[in-house]
Amino acid sequence: MSESSRRVTGGCLCGAVRYEAKGPPRAMGLCYCTDCRKASGSGFIPFAVFASEALHIAGPLISYASPAENGSEAIRNSCAVCASLVFGGPLGKTDSHTIYVGSADDSSWFEPTLAIFARNLPTWLVVPPELKQYETLPG
User: Fold this and answer.
1) Local confidence band at 12 (pLDDT 50, 70, 90 cut-offs)
2) 3-state helix vs strand vs coil in the chain, percent to 5
3) Distance linking the first and last C-alpha atoms of the chain
4) How many folded domains does the chain comprise?
5) Long-range contacts: 127-133, Cβ < 8 Å, 24+?
6) Is the pLDDT of residue 10 over 70?
7) How many angstroms separate the CA atoms of 77 and 130, rounded?
8) From 44's CA, which of 53, 70, 101, 121 has a CA 20 to 30 Å away?
9) Residue 3 has pLDDT above 70, yes or no
């Protein structure tokens, strides 16, 4: 699949929320911040950043805002029916959104290149050696 024709689809567990992203992601990686770990119930969240204009999201959403480790506000969006975590960012208010790769229908396109908030890495996890590590966010 060529970069220009790439299309990523996904959604929540129950199917009430669906999305389609067109074109290549701006970034792909693994986030080990405390926020992502608690929100996912896991050691990290695999993510892909897409331009807002390349992303179409439909369905009933609930948003949750919490203080982020970098001092800003983290917005997480879930299905209002099944509560599955789907994407990050305030819908319609930013130039990009973070899709949580676990919500993709097929994640074979996912090729992470970075690991962020590596300072929070649990002792029971290892960052894949090919990823560029950042203690917080890339500068």
Assistant:
1) very high
2) 15, 40, 45
3) 31
4) 1
5) 127/30, 127/32, 128/30, 131/29, 131/30
6) yes
7) 30
8) 53
9) no
